[in-house]
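Below is a filled-in request sheet from our internal design queue. Each sheet records the structural input a requester submitted and the sequence that came back. We keep these sheets so that new team members can see what a complete request looks like end to end.

REQUESTER: design group, bay 2
PRIORITY: normal
MODE: inverse folding
CHAIN LENGTH: 111
BACKBONE (tokenized):
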């Protein structure tokens, strides 16, 4: 299933408070999401894939690069940045050189 990649939304962190995992978790829970935390070692790569559900992802610490091969785009996320990836959108992930801590939730309740 191919989805128009322009519907991917990237929101840069604008809050003056540092993007802690507890703050981001509370923000996501207020939206009715069920967030979970994950982390990875430096330079970890996830191959291109898609999901049957939309997902919301925040970077808490480190850097992530989200690759979107169908639109030939790359999104670089820093601490506090949020990306919303619709169901069916193909994407890959590259963890930065210092690793990354992220909080993610499925919009449709899947994980």
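RETURNED SEQUENCE:
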């Amino acid at each position: 299933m191919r989805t128009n990649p322009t519907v991917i939304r990237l929101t840069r962190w604008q809050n003056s408070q540092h993007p802690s995992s507890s703050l981001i978790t509370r923000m996501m829970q207020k939206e009715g999401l069920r967030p979970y935390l994950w982390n990875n070692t430096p330079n970890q790569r996830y191959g291109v894939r898609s999901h049957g559900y939309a997902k919301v992802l925040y970077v808490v610490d480190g850097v992530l690069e989200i690759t979107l091969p169908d639109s030939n785009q790359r999104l670089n996320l820093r601490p506090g940045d949020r990306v919303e990836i619709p169901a069916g959108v193909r994407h890959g992930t590259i963890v930065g050189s210092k690793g990354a801590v992220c909080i993610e939730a499925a919009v449709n309740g899947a994980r």
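SHEET NOTES:
- The mean pLDDT is 91.
- The chain is about 10% helix and 45% strand.
FILED BY: M.R.
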